[in-house]
# Entry
Amino acid sequence: MIEYKGKEIIIIGSGMTGLSCIDFFLKKGVNPILIDTRLFPPSIKSIPKGIKCYFGGFHVDHLLKADLIVVSPGISLNNPALQIAANKGIEIVGDVELFCRELNVPIIAITGSNGKSTVTNLIKEMAQTAGYKVVVGGNIGIPVLNLLKIPLQQLYILELSSFQLEITYSLRANVATVLNVSEDHLNRYPLGIDQYRAVKMRIYKNALICVINKDEKLTIPKFSFNQKYISFGINQGDYHLINKNGKFWINSIYHDQIFNTEEMKIIGQHNYINAMSALALAEAIGLPYLSSLSALVSFTGLKHRLQIVCEHNGVKWINDSKATNIKSTESALCSISSEGTLWLLLGGDSKGADFSSLINLIIVKKIKIFCFGKDGDKIADLCPNISIRTKTMQEAIKQISLSVRPNDIVLLSPACASFDQFNNFEHRGNTFIKIVKKIIHY
# Structure
């Protein structure tokens, strides 16, 4: 543990993460200073009394007096004010770094462009089924520093975003994985996917066991003789799929028993991959295989991930709001087949992504798309003959509801971030559910 008393500590960002950092330092006997670029942060009433606050900018003069700056993940280190502080040798970290300095207990660390929340919850279910006391935090659930308030657990599972990994240095995971790497957040990484990948790969540093995706070269780290590797993949890896009579089974070099994926409640090849990655993580920490399979069979998936909202008059409405990038939407489209028309809602903040591969898939599958939000025009212009432009998702849903027929599927899988019109992807998904149920009087 590090002693923070007597140090000038500045926290930037007053969201959930920032508030958890304030609470952390107050318990350490330190009164931090809070900075938020917004003049009126939404959480202003939740800030503890006695905390000195500066709103409306970065206030470089205050930053340069700091011994330690703690930034929320959404704030880029490329900000000129933070660059000035970094060049002066001032330490800049995130909440995950503070957490890692406090605990020396088993950690499973999970990152990836897609599927990390599903895998995180699935390995949690597997560990709990095996009798472990386990908690989850990071980019999912509660901020990691709030986990310190819970009595010491046997296992900590951290879902980590690239933004969190940028400002984490002391992570020493027992098991770490990069599930996949695809174009995402390129507005944050001007050097492109190589820069984004390099940040993701930080999760492997000092990890005892690395779980790697054999199908994606971008997830494979430089091999170290000090580390053990367990792999998964569609046709290759320690956990892989085999096709028996048209059915997919999960096979493992560690176990004689194969597992029929039709026993799972979550659908699609991407979820077969999620299942194999979770089984590989379970193998890495020594969970009993049969109990892991039991958890896999009972796992029903997460809200906003190919969530069937309802089926009414032969029309199925599916909420996949968590699809915040192109690869995730492509996975959804490859997992769904429709006897009628597939209506796809796309749009939001594309984060500078290239939509050409997705549009090609949409054309091949003869999908009708409605484009909305900040980059709706950009997406619609790529396929003007099959797209309709609306300002909002709400307008798109109402228009689609007038045209659907039995056997149709309406899919919200936006391939974009939600922050242009919603608080987060949950807000977007819940809005979709609310409107759909109102329209069909469900």
